[in-house]
Amino acid sequence: MLSALKNQAAFFRQFRQRFETTGAIAPSSRFLARSMTSFLAARNPSTPVRMLEIGPGTGPVTEAIVKLLQPHDVFDLVELNEEFVAILRSRFENETEWQRVRAQATIHQLPVQDFAAQEPYDFVISGLPLNNFPAELVTSITDTYFRLLKPGGVLSYFEYMYVRPVRKIVTRGAERIRISSIDETLQAHCDRCRIRRDNVWLNVPPAWVQHLRKPLEVR
Ligand SMILES: C[S@@+](CC[C@H](N)C(=O)[O-])C[C@H]1O[C@@H](n2cnc3c(N)ncnc32)[C@H](O)[C@@H]1O
After folding, report:
1. Is the pLDDT confidence value at 217 over 80?
2. Is 24 domain-assigned?
């Protein structure tokens, strides 16, 4: 309980210091974490998987992931912010559920667009605040998501409800062009690959979780 409050306070500090990359006022709720991990939860537990979490922050979604990992799964985490990396390392050291999978988990501290994986992943779960980024960076990051996924693999990411539709109406000039361009990029991926969208109302703020499957290669 005390450590959860400390993590919330650390998250809020990063929200104030690094708004663009932190992108939220509070860590995600357990309801959002459950939706983000629903495809991992539904996999065949006897087949090992490679799992990548991008932007874990203080670890609310990681907490749901560690509960679902099986002994031969591989779990990589990519986080930019060294304060969050320190919190995640401490959780893998000190929390029982996390200790169980510590040997399977590797934290990489770098921007995901610079991350070169040894092999692609079955599941990619991302908490990045894409609406805060320049449009070209969103294109680069979404290309990275699909580069890192195996054909047939599932990408799950969240976005706060109605942010882009509202910003497209209330903004002007360069900001409107930026938001419209991000919207086009994300919509194109959803049109091509979306398998489901969840509405998660019990989160601050409420969020949509988008689940996309990378197409199988054409033989
Ligand atoms: C909205 S927070 C989400 C944190 C956590 N997943 C949650 O749901 O509460 C975004 C996270 O992405 C990280 N981040 C932002 N840009 C990143 C990038 N280019 N590569 C890796 N991590 C990044 C931030 O440091 C932060 O931890």
Report:
1. no
2. no
